[in-house]
Amino acid sequence: MDLSTLQQLNAARDARRAVALVTDLGDGRGMAITEGETMPEALAASVATAFLTGKAVTADIDGRSVFINAYLPPPRIVVIGAVHISQALAQLAPVTGYDLTIIDPRTAFATPERFAGVDLIAEWPEDALRARPLDSYTAVAAVTHDPKIDDFALSAALSAGCFYVGALGSRKTHAKRVERLVALGHSQAEIARISAPIGLDIGAASPAEIALATLGDIVRAFRRRSLASGQGDA
Amino acid sequence: MAHMELLDPLQTAQSWKQQGRNVAIATVMETWGSAPRPAGSHLVIDADGNFEGSVSGGCVEGAVITEAIDIIQSGAAKMLEFGVADETAWQVGLSCGGRIRIYVERLL
Q1: Does B38 sit within 8 Å of A10, measured CB to CB?
Q2: Does the structure show a pLDDT above 90 at A86?
Q3: Percent of chain A beyond pLDDT 70?
Q4: Of A137, A192, A190, which Cα lies nearest the Cα of A163?
Q5: Partner of B40 for a Cys bridge, out of A51, A56, A158, A231, CB 3.0 to 4.6 A?
Q6: Whether A11 contacts chain B with CB within 8 A
Q7: pTM for this predicted structure
Q8: Which residues of A touch B10 (CB under 8 A)?
Q9: Does the structure show a pLDDT above 60 at B5?
Q10: Which one of A39, A56, A73 terminates a domain?
Q11: Residues 7-46 of B with CB under 8 A from A
Q12: Torsion angle of alpha carbons A46, B78, B54, A30, nearest 10°?
C-alpha cells in the first residue's frame, strides 16, 4: 500500500463512510474502495459481502490472492426524547455494541440525574444534529410524541438515509405525521421506511419492553440492510 | 463522541509517514482457534521500533516488530505465521493455543 491509498482510507473512515482495502498479496498493491463507488467487476461480490459483514477475508480473484479488509463506521443510535423508554434503551444499546446519543431540548427531561453516564444533549434536534450530522450507519428513534421535537429529526433521518427510522405513536398519530412529512417534501416511499408504531411486534407493554422491541427492530434493520442503498429494510 | 479511537494505528501510520518516517503495517490475515485479535487488525511500526495497535494480545508483537524493521529496510512484504507456543518457539507462540497469519508490508 502507498501513502495516498492510506490517506484515502483514513479520509473515508474519518467521514464515517464504509471503505474496503483490497491488497493484492502477489505484488502488495493496495486499492481503497468506498461503499457505493464503482469497482472492478471481479471484486464486486466479495467486497459487497465484506461491507455487509464487516469481516476481513482472503479471496481468490482471477487467480490472484487478495485480502479484503472492510472498515465499517461503528453503528450508532440517536434517540430523540429523554423519556422513560430512552432510559431503558440507553442501558440496552451498549450491550449490543451500539453507541447511543439522546437529544431532547426539554431540560426537565434531559437531566444528568436521569441519564447518568449517557451521551445526552439538551438541545433542539435542529441544533444538535448540525454539529453531528446523521448518516447511513445511524439509527434514529423518535420517542417524544411531540411533532415540534420529532418531526425535524425524522425528516433529517430520511434525507440522510439512516439505516433505521422509527417513531413512537399510535397509527392515528402516525397518519397525521405522514401528512406533515409529505408537506416537508418527502415521498410516500421514503415515509414508508419509518417503523411506526416503533419496534418489533412482541406485544411490548412497559417502557423497557418497548426499548427492547425498538433495539431488536434496529438490529434487524442493520443486519438486513441492502447494500445498494445502504438503507435498512424497515 | 469520538468515532475513531484516540490512537488509531492507520492514522498513526499516515502521520508518521507524513513526518518522513519509514513505516511498516502488519495486518492479521487469518486466525484459527482461539486468537485475541480478529482478521483485519493492525499493528504499525516505524524503523526505530515504535509501534501502535496490536495483532495479538501481546504474545507475538515483539517478533512482528523485529520482522517489520527488516521489511522497512528490504522493502519486501512478508507473510508471518505463529502457532501454539512450544519449546522451540516459546518466545513467539500464542499461549492461548490459536494460530494466526500476519502480513507485514512497508508503507510506500
Answers
A1: no
A2: yes
A3: 96
A4: A137
A5: A56
A6: no
A7: 0.73
A8: 6, 9-10, 13
A9: no
A10: A73
A11: 10-11, 13-14, 17-18, 25, 27-30, 38-40
A12: -40
| Residue A187's CATH number | 3.40.50.720
pLDDT of residue B36: 77
Range of the domain at A193: 76-223
Provide the CA A206 distance to its chain's centre, in angstroms. 25
- Residue B20 or B100, more confident: B20
Residue pairs spanning A and B at CB distance below 8 A: 58
Is B3 within the bounds of a domain?
no
Is the Cβ pair A9, B10 closer than 8 Å?
yes
C-alpha cell at B47: 524503523
- A72: DSSP letter: P
The bridge status of strand A119-121 relative to strand A99-103 is parallel
Contacts of B103 in chain A (CB under 8 A): 23, 25, 67
Q: Where are the beta strands (DSSP E) in chain B?
A: 23-32, 42-46, 51-53, 78-82, 99-106
Residue A234 covered by a domain: no
Within this chain, do residues A111 and A177 fall inside the same structural domain, yes or no?
yes
Residues A65, A133 within the same domain: no
Residue B101: closest CA among chain A residues belongs to which residue? Answer: A58
Per CB-CB distance under 8 Å, the chain A contacts of B11 are 10
- Which residues of chain B does A25 touch, with a Cβ-Cβ cutoff of 8 Å? 79, 103
| pLDDT, average across residues A197-221 | 96
